[in-house]
Structures are given as C-alpha cells and as structure tokens.
Design a protein that fits this description.
The protein is built from 15 helices and 16 strands. The strands form three sheets. A seven-stranded mixed sheet has the order 4-10-9-8-7-5-6, sandwiched between helices. Strands 11, 12, 13, 15 and 16 form a five-stranded antiparallel sheet that branches. A hairpin with a 2-residue loop joins strand 1 and strand 2. Helix 2 packs antiparallel against helix 10, helix 3 packs parallel to helix 10 and helix 4 packs across helix 9. The chain starts with 8 loop residues before the first helix and ends with a helix.
Length: 482
C-alpha cells in the first residue's frame, strides 16, 4: 500500500534539483530513495516498501518512538519559547544528563546541533586556557560550521577543501589496521600501539608549547566515526590527555555520534578509555531526530566563560519542546534497557561479522563496540589495499535487498553499521546473511569452505594477521580446547 505524499517522486526530485543546493548530500543520488515513514528500525518509501535501517544513529531509540513523539506533541501544545524563562524540562534534563557523567562534569549549555556544541566547546576552551592552538586527529569530522571545518581533516583533506589554519595541528588517527602504526608490524601489544599514537600528540603539544606557550585543546571523537569506525587502542586517550594537560590544554570529547549508550558497556564512549574529559559535546541521538544538543563541562570552565561578562544566548537551544523530547529519549534508554541491548546485540553482530571475514577475502578487518561496528574491505589482505569500488557496489546491492548501510573512511572502503538501538539479533542475522550473499557475488574473494576449518583451527598467530585475526583465532582455539 502506498503512503500519502504531497508530490509524486519525480516531482520531488525535480524540485530538489531546482531549489536545493547541489552540494547537499543525497544517498543513492542516481536513484534516490523517497522515505515517507519510519517505525523502530525500519523506514518505508512512498510505495510502502520497507527497508532495514542499519545506519541511522540519529533515530537512537527507534524511528518515531511513541513516547518521544507524545512528549514533543504535548509540550508543543503548551509552550515553546527560549530558555531565558524558567521551565522545568530544562533543569530536569540538565540534572539527568549530569548524573550520567563523572565528576567534575556538572554544568550544561544547551544548543541545537553537534556542530554548535563543538563550536561552543572551542570557544569555552579558548577563553579558559587563553591559548589558540588546537590538536585534532586526521580524518576527524566535528561539524559543518566554519570553525568546525577548520578542525575537521575529513573535510580539509578533500580536493576542494579549505586550507588548514596555522593554529590547527593534525595528529595521526590511532588506526591499528591501516594507520601509521599497525598491528602486528609495529608492536606486539595494544598498549604499546596506544603509547606510540599518543606520543604523536605529545610531540605536537611540545612543539606548540615551544612556539606559542601552550595548547588550547585536544578534540577527538571517543571512537572515530566518519574516519572509518576507528576503535582507539587501550590506554590511548589516557596518555593523550596527560600530555595535553601538561601543555596547559584541555580535552574535548566529541560524543555526538557515539554517546548515549551506543557502546553498550557505558553511557559515554570516553568511559571505555578510563578518562574524564574537561568538556563533552553531545547531540544527534539526544533528540531521536529532533535538533537538540548540549555541552557539558566543569564549574571552573563554565565560570571563566561567565566571567567574561558576555552573555550566552541561543534562541532555540534548551527550548521546552527540545528538552521534553530529550527527557523522553532518556526515559526510553532507561526503561527499555538499551545499553544492555547494545552490548548483547552488538557483540552478536561483531561475532557474526568476524565469521564472515573467515569466508571472504575481501574483508580485511572487523572492529567495533556495542552497536558501532565497522567492516573494512581490502582487495589484498597483505597490502591492505582499500576496496573502494567494491564497497560502493555492496552498498548499492544491499539497498536492492532492502537493507540500508553506508561506507566511510578516508578511502570510502569501510562498511558502517550504526543502527537504531532497538536493532535485534534477528536484524543482525538478516544483515549478515544478506551481506554474505552479496560478497559471494564478487568473484575471487571467497575462501573455499573445504579449507575453512583447517585454516581457522590450526593456523598459529602469525605476523601477517591483523589484530582482529589474532583475537578471533585465540577465541576459536579457546573454544576448541574447552
């Protein structure tokens, strides 16, 4: 059954091409989807066709969750105004957010988007430290504002990207599969790799101190998303934070894409690295599709901002409707125990993807935490050559199979899975089984099943294995011996 729509799809396309900037991204541009409805982990087009949504981390608790919709509708029927008037939804939200963070993170600023949150975080850092130099990671993306493009090599590295400002310093992303230091060539332990990558940031900090007296801030996603679903090695952020603070800088954790329990084991991804940032930015999943975001910082940093005498005002940031919706999202996370679900379903998805890697040579690495999973495709496992064209083909084939995934990373060869948190093990099975069939269509990339058992069970850990190879092999050896 077709859903109600104002215009036929052809007219929607015509008007978009005529009136919407061509730079605005559109999935499947040559044959775009027209999505008119969403429910939980599914989206529907104008013909009623249903697609499994494996990438929409914005619809955190599921598309159009009834409790979230009701909260927004109820508050909108009462009042929506700016936060210069008292209202309970704002202070209740602030208290609930703060309770999820470690001390001394206890002061909130409400904004409309992750880009705004990161822009404000930079402003807070500059006022507090009185320094200007920012350290960011290669391939990082922190938003679309001019200030954020300046600290986002994900955009700066593009052929048409703007020139990097002198005050921005780029450290290698801690990618242990295809980065500057890789497993196992450069180290036999994850901790050592973490130190090597962290010391790259330390070197930059020392140079900044020597030249300009001190660092303003280090900004990084706790798990890098657009850069290729990168999971930092253990101990990395702890050592980085120490070196940044020694250089008089503060540490900003961008949780816009990975926060609110997506990692499963913790509410915030930075907690997996056993660190406490000075500023945390959150957004996207906070409103389940409604534009609301926040900056959480320490009383000391907030006071330095207030002491300037320049008031901070954001017309829509912290409005009653946004806060009511964000409170409803927190309700659902708690009541439906979505952190536990992310841990359980995410572990299952990761294990199934690792099984897939044993069957298909095209898969070079599998990595993830909770419902944040990346599958890196390569044409040559030893050279780790990115399989960019193959990744594009797979995305389009999966769309034909009514499953929506995307690709990212500097070479656009990493398949990204960041589904709504209501994703199930049955959904994971459908995703992986379909991906298995699509990969099998690509000639020359399948490992013969007859050789699979022998290769997996008796092959010792060798130097040409990736980190995930070694982990998977150890797990299988353990199961075999038990």
């Amino acid at each position: 059954m077709a859903y109600l729509q104002s215009l036929p799809k052809s007219e929607t396309i015509r008007l978009r091409e005529k009136h919407v900037g061509a730079a605005c991204q559109l999935f499947f541009r040559s044959s775009p989807l027209k999505i008119v409805r969403g429910v939980a982990q599914f989206m529907y087009d104008e013909t009623g066709e249903r697609y499994l949504d494996c990438i929409n981390n914005v619809a955190h608790v599921g598309h159009c969750h009834p409790h979230v919709v009701e909260a927004g509708r109820n508050q909108m029927s009462l009042i929506s105004t700016n936060n210069r008037y008292l209202h309970d939804e704002l202070v209740i939200l602030a208290e609930r957010l703060v309770q999820t963070f470690p001390d001394p993170l206890s002061v909130c600023f409400f904004v409309n988007s992750g880009s705004e949150a990161n822009d404000l975080a930079l402003r807070l850092a500059r006022i507090y430290t009185k320094n200007k130099d920012i350290v960011t990671l290669d391939h990082a993306y922190h938003g679309h504002l001019t200030s954020m493009i300046d600290v986002s090599p994900y955009k700066l590295n593009l052929p048409g990207g703007p020139e990097k400002p002198e005050w921005v310093h780029v450290a290698p992303v801690p990618d242990v599969y295809r980065g500057k230091y890789i497993y196992p060539n450069d180290s036999q332990s994850e901790e050592e790799l973490g130190e090597m990558y962290a010391d790259e940031v330390g070197k930059i900090c020392k140079d900044i101190v020597k030249k300009n007296g001190g660092v303003c801030a280090f900004i990084a996603e706790s798990l890098q998303s657009c850069g290729g679903q990168i999971i930092p090695p253990e101990g990395y952020l702890k050592r980085v934070y120490e070196q940044v603070r020694e250089a008089s800088g503060i540490c900003i954790a961008d949780e816009v894409q990975v926060g609110f329990g997506r990692v499963g084991t913790h509410m915030w991804a930075f907690e997996t690295q056993d660190v406490v940032p000075d500023i945390v930015t959150v957004g996207k999943p906070m409103g389940n599709g409604h534009p609301v975001a926040a900056v959480i910082t320490t009383p000391e940093i907030a006071k330095s901002f207030a002491d300037t005498g320049v008031e901070y005002f954001n017309t829509y940031g912290g409005n009653p409707v946004s806060c009511a919706i964000a409170n409803a999202v927190l309700d659902v996370i708690e009541e439906e125990r979505l952190l536990e679900r992310a841990t359980r379903v995410g572990s299952y998805l990761l294990a199934r993807c690792n099984d897939l890697k044993l069957k298909h040579r095209l898969i070079g690495d599998v990595r993830g935490r909770g419902l944040f999973v990346g599958v890196e495709l390569v044409t040559d496992r030893e050279a780790r050559t990115p399989a960019t064209a193959e990744a594009k083909h797979i995305i389009n084939r999966m769309r034909e199979e009514k499953i929506l995934i995307s690709r990212d990373g500097p070479d656009s060869n990493v398949l990204k899975f960041k589904p709504p948190m209501v994703f199930s093990t049955q959904d994971a099975d459908r995703l992986v089984d379909t991906l298995d069939r699509v990969l099998a269509e690509l000639d020359g990339n399948r490992i013969p099943v007859t050789n699979l058992k022998l290769e997996v069970l008796v092959t010792p850990i060798t130097e040409d294995m990736s980190r995930s190879d070694a982990i998977a092999n150890k797990n299988i050896q353990s199961i075999k011996s038990s």
